[in-house]
């Protein structure tokens, strides 16, 4: 089976999930949390470090249960916020465009 490359959004979401799980784990060990969730410590380490950015749903659900997190919290906290829309460029000015380097003033012609 060939895996398609992850999008930047998927990678960011995986990094957010890892940071959130690591924070929720606090002082508890990876081995303790992984065992309680029915996972290997290596799997938890990969999720926390972003090396497994798209873990299975039931893996995330088990970790959420053990860490006291709701799935709703995880969805909200792991979803990247959309970038603000760029403001449209201002309409061009209808008059002449002033020069950044105005021409020097001419001296009056001799009479």
From TrEMBL:
Query: Where do the record's region annotations for Disordered lie?
Result: 83-111
The record's GO molecular-function terms, alphabetically, read:
DNA binding
**InterPro entries xref list:** Cro/C1-type_HTH (IPR001387), Lambda_DNA-bd_dom_sf (IPR010982)
Record-linked Pfam families:
HTH_31
Domain HTH cro/C1-type: where? Answer: 21-74
Q: What is this protein called?
A: XRE family transcriptional regulator
